[in-house]
Amino acid sequence: MFLFVAPELKINTNMLKKVLLSELVLTVFVLAGWALTMLNFGPHMGKDLQYPYLDMVRSSSHDDILGNLDPILIGIWSASMFIHSSFMIYVASKCALYLTRQKGKKLMVPFLTLCSVLIAFLYSISISRYYYDFSSYNAVGVWLVVECIPVYYSVTAFFKSKINKPAG
Asked: Which member of 14, 42, 45, 50 has the greatest number of CB atoms within 10 A?
């Protein structure tokens, strides 16, 4: 996602240090979340989790200390999902505005938000359909293409450096 937002940022040395520090802190938080999930449930039950925070909250009992942590876990999960969804809608609106040559600037974010809410609602009606679509070969192919975007940038930069190499 950072690659979509990077052209809008003025990245100097100070900004780069802050971005790298925030990336490091975010990585530590994500790893801490996974570590807490695995420590709470162990390797046998932990391997069956689909969404660690949500499944941890669902299967917790209200008798022990984990039951008292339910509001905190729900808050962490909800906040991370809200931030992720907001960022995805922002990136989608930037891409859509670029493709439409900045037409419909005021309507793009509400339209994309409505689309994402509609898709979430339709999948909430049939959870089995969601799991089927999410684990299909088409979805895996799309995710592989998306996850390889940095590789595309690197290959393009390599070829551009070879083509634009000064003679000398």
From this structure: 45
